[in-house]
Amino acid sequence: MAEHEVLDALVVGAGFSGILATYRLRELGLHFRTIDKAGDIGGTWFWNTYPGAQSDTESHLYRFAFDEEDLKEYPWSHRYLRQPEIQAYLKHVVERHELKPYFQFDTELLSAIWSDTDRIWRIETTRGRFVARYLITGLGLLTAQNLPTIPGADRFKGIIKHTASWDPSLDLRGKRVGVIGNGSTGTQLLTSLAPIVSELVSFQRNPQYSVPAGNKPVTPAERQAINDDYPRIWPKAFQSSTAFGFMESSRPVMSVEPDERERIFEDLWEKGNGFRFLFSEFGDIAIDPEANEECCKFIRKKIRQIVKDPVKAAMLQPTDPYAKRPVCDNGYYEIFNQDNVKLVDLKKAPLTEITETGIVTGDGRLHELDLICYATGFDAIDGSYTRLDIRGVGGQTIQEHWDGKASSYLGVATAGFPNLFMIFGPQSPFSNNPPLIESEVDFICKAIMHNESRRPTAGLPVMSLRAESERGWEELCYETAKDSLFTIHGSWITGNNVAGKKSGTRFFFGGLGTWRRLAQEEVDAGFPSFVSSSAAASAPR
Ligand code: NA7
Question: Is the ipTM reported for this complex over the cut 0.95?
Answer without folding.
Answer: yes
